[in-house]
Amino acid sequence: MGSADSDPRQLNGIAGATSTTSKVAIVAPSSKPGIDIEYTFIQVSIGSPQLDFTGNCGNIASGVGPFAIDEGLVPVTPGRDTINVRILNTNTGRVLVETMEIDQVGHFAEDGDYTLAGTFSTGSTIGVAFEKPAGAMTGSLLPSGNTIDSLCIPGTIVRPTCVVQASLIDAANPFVLVDASTLPAVLHDKDPHSTFYLDFIEDVRRQGAVAMGLARDVQEAAKTRGTPKIAILSSGKGETSPEADLEVTAFSMGRVHGSLQLTGAVCLSTATLSDDSTGEEP
Q1: 229, CA 20 to 30 Å: which among 126, 137, 171, 277?
Q2: Does the pTM exceed 0.90?
Q3: Closest of 280, 155, 183, 175 to residue 227, by C-alpha
């Protein structure tokens, strides 16, 4: 898994050339009291031979519990139909509790009727609860001390210097949640997948990393692509999302992410409950 010879297509491997499918979890039984399983998350870079051990991943965390059950790493009492597995993420030192359905022979019951938006089939439910998620990497829910920060983004030959507003939240994972209405006008007609747009988003992410205390400067922030993550928030109720309160475009490893990360959902829900944060604004 990875990008041999820095090939972004990842032809010599199994990752699939997306950040969503370039993830690794190293799973083992735990000897710690009250913990069933420990896992270390690794984000595999795309287009470079690098591994990122910072932060957590809620999407792959959802698979750790079922894997542990099917591999016999967690004992299952015969006759039960659900189980709670307490899982320690070693990257952040935080505990997750996963609730899963069990079949008659004590394996994870994969089949079910639950439908998750953005997927193409049904399955059983996996409940993931994050215990004490605040300050997962920085030690503080609001690492900068502010609910909203103004980040100055230096200009380039093709765009002027500008200031964007963002909430810097560290809950399950550190995130830079940017108010879309403060993005410069030069981005309004650009495709989020374009190099122009992605370069700007990366500049914002690096400034956010410095403001959160995750890097001393933007040069150091550039070396860690996995954290903090970044998402653009705008008001819902539009033509494309008439029933949504918020529209979210999430990014990961320098590209548009195919979904809102589970840890991103934790940060976003936290922001909506925080007065004056980007997520709280209508």
Answers
A1: 126
A2: no
A3: 175
